[in-house]
Amino acid sequence: MRDRSTPITCTFGEVMIYQITRTIEDRIVAFHGFGSPLVQLALHLAKKTHAPDLVLVAGATYGVNPTPPFLAPTTNDWVMNRGAECNLDIEELFDLAASGRVGRMFLSGLQIDRWGNMNVTRVGREQLQLKLPGGGGGCNLSCDVQHVTIWTAAHRTAPDPKGRRRFRLVEGCDFITSVGHRTAEGKTRFEMRYRGKGPDSLVTELGVFDFDDSGHARLAGIYPDVDVAEVRENTGFEFPVREDLSLVPLPTPEMVEFIRALDPLRIHERELRPEERARSFALA
Amino acid sequence: MYTQADKRCDLPSLVAHVREGDCVAIGGGLSWREPMAALRELVRQQIKGLKLVGSAHGIDVDLLCGAGAVAVSAESYVGFEQDFGMAPNYRRACESGAVEVRDSCCYTLVQQLRAAIAGLPFMPIRSVRGTGFMHIDPDYKTMLCPFTGEELVLVPALEPDVAILHAHYGDAHGNLHIEGPPVADILFAKASKKVIATVEKLVPPEQLTEVGVTIPYFYVTALAEVAYGAHPTACYPFYAYDRRHTAEYYRVASDGGEPFRDLYLQPYVYGCPSHAEYLEAIGGAEALDRLASWKEGSRPWMDLYA
Questions:
Q1: Domain ranges of chain B
Q2: How far apart are CA B197 and CA B26, in angstroms?
Q3: In whole angstroms, what is the distance from residue B68 CA to residue B49 CA?
Q4: What pLDDT is stored for residue B137 in this prediction?
Q5: CA A100 to CA A194: how far, in whole Å?
Q6: Stretch A176-196: mean pLDDT, rounded?
Q7: Exposed e or buried b for every residue in A145-184, given b needs 16+ CB within 10 A?
Q8: Where are the domains positioned within chain A?
Q9: Which residues of A fall within a CB distance of 8 Å from B306?
Q10: Chain B residues touching A265 at Cβ < 8 A
Q11: Of all helices (H) and strands (E), which one includes residue B170?
Q12: Is B17 helix (H, G, I), strand (E, B) or coil?
């Protein structure tokens, strides 16, 4: 018997949060930055479910294991620091990363290339066309933290009247704010002797990629309402597909309830376009 | 070292410590404890040509860009997060060339400040290599580590001319107490040539000792008591983030430089020669009481952001 209040469907945002949650290991230090409510919720969901011993460091406040009563619209708000066991300061968090003790970080980009290099600094290589907000600590952390989860809820690109698309997953970034598996000059992370191992997953609203042995993004999972052709159409580079490509798993009703209780203002939906907010999935 | 016994002054005298063309570090971050009253006074005094350094910022940098006070931005992030999005005045100023873009990153900035604090010419970091930032700042050098043989980046010491901070409490001597996340304020205070601070409340020294000194007095050049000096950003526990006012700011700033001047700078900055007049302009006691309602529980707190 199912309680009447138990959700029988979930939204796309909730499914995407769960995909990010699945990339988080237990018993590591994981840190989220600012402007990333999907990731904030994913970390809290991980700690609530499979990763109770996660050391969750909140972005901007640097609070450790906070229990916010609700998700605030901005990251450096005392709401987000409620219940924190202790607080780090800015240098402590980055020192932990530089010394190899931060297990996972979450980064996004307006441009993301096949190797996981990303740009949140500027559009236009020579002439500045669009000044983006900037990468915060992403540049440093992309080199230093053990593993990186990349996420974007704007993989889908509509063609302009001439049929051209301004891809989010691009052939090349106009500027490299954070590094993936190979530099613009083609050097590998091993050659660069970075502390961290780089991105191991790329979660978008169309699918979930891992990275193959060469460091190239590879499609590993798709959502029930998307096919591979649609992913290809919206991607600015060719990519391999895993032989065991599967549908991504959906969250349980309990997980969905947890997300809804933690984000009553639906702050995470501000990362989603209206068409993604309209997607709905039946829960088992 | 600033050792005088009484550093109290009014807001205009405080801000007059900033000179045209100064390298300025602004305290706080995002929607938390930005020294907004001091920045509005800086705009009124028409101090221009500033070089801004910092980590994650929003309305503070955007306001200065909208007022034409900035020549160079070496921030690591300027925006309104998922709340409103990109910073309109900052974008326009960067894209028009009015502001020279020299973006930095958080740890790079931290290491540069630490070099200044320790009196060293540089600090090494392992990151940044392979990113576009290597081409933005010609002062970054690389070297092979004499111990391990690995390639490191050396980032030069950064000693801002002035740090502008907003703290909860201060005493006449200049000791400051900050509650909650200090962001980079302590690093800024220790690395900068001058530190000017607004505080919510001036208190007797013994009361400050009791709550704890976050920044010792000898770093601090001058301070002024300015209650609600961080508005519209938050200064908990006194007041939450004024999302309603920020929404108005954002709407007007998004409409363009001229609307921003006429409909924001005029009514809230130029048209308010004193901070008291500003507080009236934003809605007076009623608006301020509303921002203190977060203390009553999660529901009223959430209502501030609904």
A1: 11-103+159-288, 122-156
A2: 10
A3: 8
A4: 85
A5: 10
A6: 95
A7: bbbbbbbbbbbbbeeeeeeeeebbbbeebbbbbbbbbbbb
A8: 1-88+250-274, 107-248
A9: 265
A10: 302, 305-306
A11: strand B162-170
A12: coil
Can you tell me the distance from the alpha carbon of B198 to that of B196, in angstroms, rounded to the nearest whole number? 7
Single-letter code of the amino acid located at B240 = A
Measure A169 CA to nearest chain B CA, in Å: 18
The 10 Å Cβ neighbour count of residue B97 is: 9
- Residues B106, A75: C-beta atoms closer than 8 Å: no
CATH 3.60.140.10 fits B11-103+159-288, yes or no: no
Q: Name the pLDDT band for A3 (thresholds 50, 70, 90).
A: low
Tell me, what's the pLDDT at A4?
60
Tell me the two tokens of residue B206. 């013994």
pLDDT exceeds 60 at position A1: no
In CATH terms, the fold of domain A107-248 is Glutaconate Coenzyme A-transferase (3.40.1080)
Please give the angle made by the CA atoms of A134, A74 and B251, to the nearest 5 degrees: 80
Query: In the prediction, which pLDDT does A163 show?
Result: 87
Question: From the candidates A40, A41, A78, which should be mutated to test the interface with B, based on the most B CB atoms within 10 A?
Answer: A78
Residue A80: how many CB atoms within 10 A of its CB? 23
Residue A2 clears pLDDT 90, i.e. is over it: no
Nearest partner of B88 among B241, B231, B263, judged by Cα: B263
Sequence-ordered strand ranges (E) for chain A: 9-11, 29-31, 55-57, 63-64, 86-87, 104-107, 111-112, 118-119, 122-123, 130-131, 147-151, 199-203, 207-211, 217-222, 241-247, 280-282
Measured distance CA(A144)–CA(B31) in Å, rounded: 27
Given an 8 Å threshold on Cβ–Cβ distance, is B305 in contact with A73? yes
A101, two tokens = 């003790």
CB distance A131–B29 less than 8 Å?
no
Full DSSP string of B85-141: EE-HHHHHHHHHTSSEE----HHHHHHHHHHHHHT-SEEEES-STTSTHHHH-TT-E
What's the pTM?
A: 0.97
DSSP code at position A73: S
Q: Could you report the predicted ipTM of this complex, rounded to two decimals?
A: 0.96
Alpha-carbon separation of residue A19 from A151, A232, A250, B59 (angstroms): 10, 20, 8, 33
CA distance A262 to A189: 38
Task: Over range B236-252, report the average pLDDT.
Answer: 98
